[in-house]
Amino acid sequence: MPSWGTFSQSASELSQFGHTRLTRSVAYLATVRADGSPRVHPVTPIISDDNLFVFMEPTSPKGKDLLRDRRYTLHCGVESNDGGGGEFYVRGTATLIEDDTIRQEAIEASNYNPKERYILFRLDVNFAFMNTYDDGSPNVRRWKAENI
Question: How confident is the model at residue 72, as a pLDDT?
């Protein structure tokens, strides 16, 4: 799966918009429960030059979901009923990170101080979507990784 960095190199303007939307406030991570139904969680995404991350408590249901089924969707918060500053989401697969060097990358890119007990997932990106409104008309852009 492509990293955030690969996505950013392929679709710079779209990734810049996504970076702004995902890191402005709480975003929503969708995972798949064991019974196949969806689950949604508020998260604080972290974006470094190369990667998209989320930290979480080790007992979090979202972590258990991602360990069992790596698929996710991450959607920004939307500010108002008319689309606010725009809509953005990515989807792909999550990987539990246990490498201290990569963990340090996430900590340095974070706008908060993650607790040592938190576990870390890297979210690879295989699809991105944005929608803004120009005079009430939707302006949709999409990106899809090659060979997916």
Answer: 98
pLDDT tier, 82 (very low <50, low <70, confident <90, very high otherwise):
low
Give CA 22 to chain center in angstroms.
7
CA dihedral over 111, 77, 131, 106, signed as positive or negative: positive
Running DSSP on this structure, what letter comes out for residue 2?
A: -
Do 70 and 95 touch, CB atoms closer than 8 A?
yes
Backbone angles phi, psi at 14, to 5 degrees: -65, -45
* Rounded Cα distance, 68 and 16, in Å: 31
**SS3 sequence, 9-52?**
HHCHHHHHHHHHHHHHCCEEEEEECCCCCEEEEEECCEECCCCE
CB-facing half-sphere around the CA of 110: CA atoms within 13 A: 17
Chain center to CA of 124: 8
Tell me the two tokens of residue 64. 């258990």
Q: Residue 144 — very low, low, confident or very high, per pLDDT cuts 50/70/90?
A: very high
- pTM across the whole model: 0.93
- The model's pLDDT over 56-68, given as tens digits with 9 standing for 90+, comes to 999 999 999 999 9
